[in-house]
Design brief:
By secondary structure, the protein is an alpha+beta fold. The protein contains four helices and five strands. Helix 1 packs across helix 2. The site of coenzyme A (COA) has 21 residues, from strand 4, helix 3 and helix 4.
Length: about 140
């Protein structure tokens, strides 16, 4: 289903523990979240996957928020900086897409917000710019 992981790494279906979820977001440079936010993210995801290193420490993760029908949003793609550029992010996104392909009805629509570090990776997996539409967000303060 996915290209194989580099030696010493293992793919684990499901989210990482809450503390690791919060750490991976923070350490990879994504906006930090608190425990209440993280718990909701973990409980409310349609699917999730993470990668552990040889000591079983979570070092990469990603998840899908979805309605189970047709609309799916990939989020929280993050790799620990000490483990980047080894193909872990690619394996995570490939697994999430393959899981949607396997379990969702035909015709699923998958979105994500492609921050600059991941854009080449997402493009290479078939994601396209939504222009002339515009990705829009409303952060509530
Ligand atoms: C985006 C991110 C998740 C990618 O994670 P990653 O595990 O480094 O991803 P990969 O290793 O699969 O691919 C990243 C790059 O490494 C390259 N790479 C993969 N295996 C490699 C290897 N063995 N040796 C050298 N480079 C390699 C890939 O070709 C890719 O290069 P490119 O971006 O120039 O195309 C990671 O950079 C990250 O956490 N960034 C900060 C958080 C963030 O911005 N997340 C995205 C939110 S949308």
């Amino acid at each position: 289903m996915t290209e194989s992981l580099a030696d010493g790494y293992r793919l684990v279906v499901g989210p990482p523990p809450l503390d690791d979820y919060l750490r991976l977001r923070r350490d990879s440079g994504l906006s930090p979240k608190n425990a209440e936010q993280g718990a909701g993210a973990i409980a409310g995801s349609w699917s999730a996957v993470h990668v552990v290193d040889g000591q079983d420490v979570p070092v990469a993760m990603g998840r899908t928020i979805g309605d189970g029908g047709w609309y799916f949003h990939i989020a929280d793609i993050a790799t620990d900086p000490g483990h980047q550029r080894r193909g872990l992010g690619r394996v995570v996104v490939e697994w999430l897409v393959a899981d949607i392909r396997a379990r969702a009805p035909e015709g699923a629509y998958i979105t994500l917000v492609g921050d600059p570090p991941g854009q080449r990776l997402y493009r290479s997996l078939g994601f396209e710019d939504v222009a002339p539409s515009l990705g829009m967000a409303l952060p509530l303060r």
